[in-house]
Design goal:
The protein is α+β, with helices and mostly antiparallel strands. 50% of the residues lie in helices and 18% in strands. Strand 4 and strand 5 form a beta hairpin. The strands form 2 sheets. Strands 2-4-5-7-6 form a 5-stranded mixed sheet, with helices on one face. The structure holds adenosine-5'-diphosphate (ADP). The site of adenosine-5'-diphosphate has 22 residues, from helix 4 and helix 6. It is an enzyme of class 2 (transferase). It is found in: Membrane. It catalyses: ATP + protein L-histidine = ADP + protein N-phospho-L-histidine. This is histidine kinase.
Length: 264
């Protein structure tokens, strides 16, 4: 803390300087606390699958050699926990690596409908017993970083799959008007309670850890999506009705091609 010396109290400039230094210190302290919180959450998240894996290794060691059922079950569990850990580490690294402004360096004009179609083709196989349908897909352009926009849509779709019981539907669409282009991922899943709607974008926040436990969520997906949206000048909207379904919309400013773009 910077304390203004008694004799300088009337010196307005020193006062202002001290105030700005204090504000900067507050920001640093806040950032540091956030980082500590992140590290402790991340370690906690990584410890959970590790405990499961070592549990199954013990089981294998004791019974797995004689009992093929235990052997199969343990191998399967270890494989799925390892995969979960791999995804979690990837997501954690995304935060660790990303600094603001990195996305902007790779901005380009993107055909929104082509991008959505690519994403749609990429997820058809992972839907299992839920149906993924491509609805309205308007032709329009956005100016953004394509890899991250795809990653963001994948996060929405992965969630839609995770939180929609088999037999449900997932609708993808892209609607454009004069000003904006909206990507929508809509599902007929379990929905999100009203009280949690705001909080689901926080890092590591899950609506109900017990219900997300089976689905293997980390609580990081939507916070990454929010970060990506911001980096691409888009904003997110989330509407949901419990037991009916959820709609996530990413709204981008519409980009109009100029002569300079087409010359590129
Ligand atoms: P997770 O890895 O747990 O899915 P997210 O950050 O992606 O983490 O989402 C946070 C929480 O929001 C989830 O745990 C889940 O409870 C809720 N959620 C997100 N998307 C949906 C959806 N499409 N339907 C129902 N709940 C959802």
């Amino acid at each position: 803390r910077i304390v203004i010396p008694k004799e300088a109290e009337n010196g307005i400039e020193i006062h202002n300087l001290a105030q700005s230094i204090n504000q900067a210190l507050d920001r640093i302290e806040y950032g540091y606390k956030q980082q500590q919180q992140f590290i402790s959450n991340a370690s906690h998240e990584l410890r959970t699958p590790l405990t499961v894996i070592s549990g199954y290794i013990n089981l294998l060691d004791r019974w797995g050699k004689e009992d093929p059922k235990v052997l199969d079950e343990s191998i399967q569990a270890i494989q799925s926990e390892t995969e979960y850990m791999r995804q979690l580490i990837e997501r954690l690294l995304f935060f660790a690596r990303s600094t603001t402004g990195t996305l902007e360096a790779h901005f380009m004009v993107i055909d929104a409908s082509e991008l959505l179609e690519e994403v749609y083709n990429g997820v058809l196989l992972i839907a299992e017993e839920r149906e993924i349908l491509l609805g309205r897909n308007d032709k329009a352009s956005i100016y953004a970083e394509p890899g991250s926009v795809k990653q963001m849509l994948r996060i929405f779709i992965d969630n839609a799959i995770k939180y929609t019981p088999s037999g449900g539907y997932i609708y993808l669409s892209c609607e454009a008007d004069e000003k904006q282009v909206c990507f929508k991922v809509q599902d007929t899943g379990i929905g999100i309670p009203k009280k949690d709607l705001e909080r689901v974008f926080e890092r590591f926040y899950r609506v109900d850890s017990s219900r997300t436990k089976e689905t293997g969520g980390s609580g990081l997906g939507l916070s990454i999506a929010k970060y990506i949206a911001k980096g691409n000048n888009a904003r997110l909207e989330l509407t949901s009705e419990l037991h009916k379904g959820t709609t996530v919309t990413a709204i981008f400013p519409r980009h109009y091609e100029t002569k300079k773009d087409t010359d590129k």
